[in-house]
Write a structure and sequence with these properties.
Growth Hormone, Chain: A; two-stranded antiparallel sheet; 2 domains; globular; about 425 residues; about 80% helix; mainly alpha; single chain
């Protein structure tokens, strides 16, 4: 082996990878937190202002999911060819401009257009941001870093849902959208452009946890073990996990209807916003806890996220006039929401291994986007035709199905010895 194929790099005290994680948390906490975690608080006031049903307004979220799903493969190819730093910064800025424009809309179709634009940005900022960057910058503690980045969206929801509720009550929903747009455009996007870097080599570093001496050809990575992509797509386990991901994401969109369900049961908008924050508290704690649990048992992780979420929905259905009970149910439901990103990723790794993990998970990510696309508008239409109780009960049943899919996938994987 030639000497020029060996690279020795001195490690600094604080690896720049942690700055990359901070940038990922910024994207997840503010961009994704405002787009997803705070969307529900706008449903009732905006639909009433526009004179449309909540379900009709909520279709913009379906448009967003569909666009994300269609954009994912394109976004993946762009990230292979162009700078992640500028792609993420540009999409953040586009998101900020979209929020500013939403403050001016007076027709529901305009929100559908905005949903399409937001979907394009989220293909980068949600689905590909932290998985891509963490895997580039970290050789060890990858799961922990992914859990931290993913949990940031819950923290953003906890912080911004009460702020959104207060702004809507005092100033109106238009100023709330405008304020969030300014925050993304003037704070997040410049920080990403300043701090993000594509790869450790850009800073003269190796990935965190890599050996001090690696070959440049291998870039410090092993081939990994597990199923190849070709073998995976021929396995029924692959389609079981696609269904698991589809259902988990679809059920997580019930979060958008919790504020309206709470106000329909006699609580104020401010109390509904606090309940929405309780969901995000469950999401945040759930993501961190699920990462820890999955290090020990993927089966336990599947059980905790599905049963916890189903119990939370049951508590919401049967709570009568008790804000404490409503908040408790919302908190437990947050654990199911947490499972969308953390548990789906960990279950995929447990079943298929690491050999072709990225390629396998990219397909499952499309199922996540598709589940959100169909469910976010579908739940609203079903709720308009029936009630919030019906959609929450349906969600609980769906989570039990996810539990059975997870158990079957893990047991089939173990028995096959693949």
């Amino acid at each position: 082996m030639k000497n020029d194929s060996i690279v020795a790099i001195e490690k600094p005290r604080l690896h720049y990878g942690f700055t990359i994680v901070a940038c990922c948390c910024l994207m997840m906490g503010i961009n994704v937190g405002l787009t997803f975690s705070c969307a529900g608080i706008f449903y009732r006031p905006v639909s009433e202002s526009l004179g449309v049903a909540v379900g009709e307004f909520g279709i913009y979220m379906s448009v967003m999911y569909v666009t994300s799903s269609l954009m994912l493969s394109v976004a993946g190819r762009l990230l292979e060819r162009y700078s992640a730093r500028w792609l993420f910064s540009a999409n953040s800025a586009l998101m900020g401009l979209t929020f500013l424009s939403m403050a001016l809309y007076d027709k529901v179709w305009e929100f559908y257009v905005a949903g399409g634009v937001l979907g394009v940005t989220l293909a980068f900022l949600l689905y590909l941001s932290f998985p891509t960057l963490v895997n580039r910058w970290f050789q060890t503690r990858v799961g922990l870093m992914i859990g931290i980045c993913s949990a940031a969206s819950g923290i953003g929801g906890m912080l911004f849902n009460p702020v959104a509720g207060w702004m809507i009550t005092v100033w109106g929903w238009r100023w709330a959208y405008a304020g969030f747009g300014v925050l993304i455009l003037c704070v997040v996007s410049p920080l990403l452009a300043w701090l993000l870097r594509d790869r450790p080599a850009d800073k003269g570093l190796l990935p965190y946890g890599a050996d001090a001496v690696v070959t440049t050809a291998a870039e410090g990575r092993g081939a990994g073990s597990g199923m190849t992509y070709g073998a995976a797509v021929k396995s029924p386990l692959f389609y079981a996990l696609i269904l698991f991901a589809f259902l988990m994401m679809g059920i997580s969109t019930l979060n958008l209807f919790i504020p309206g369900f709470v106000t329909d049961h006699g609580f104020s908008l401010e109390q509904a916003s606090v309940t929405a924050a309780a969901v995000m508290a469950g999401v945040t704690i759930g993501k961190l806890a699920l990462g820890w649990i999955n290090d020990r048992s993927s089966l336990a992780g599947v059980a905790v996220t599905t049963l916890g979420g189903a119990l939370g929905l049951a508590v919401l259905i049967f709570s009568e006039g008790s804000l404490f009970s409503v908040m408790g149910g919302a908190f437990l439901f947050g654990w199911a929401y947490a499972g969308v990103t953390v548990q789906t990723a960990m279950l995929t790794r447990s079943v298929f291994g690491t050999r072709d993990y990225a390629r396998i998970y990219s397909v499952i990510s499309i199922a996540l986007a598709a589940g959100g696309a169909l469910a976010s508008g579908g739940w609203g239409l079903l709720a308009d035709a029936t009630s919030g109780t019906v959609i929450f009960a349906s969600g609980a049943i769906g989570l039990i199905l996810c539990l059975l899919l997870g158990i079957w996938s893990l047991r089939s994987r173990s028995s096959s010895g693949a």
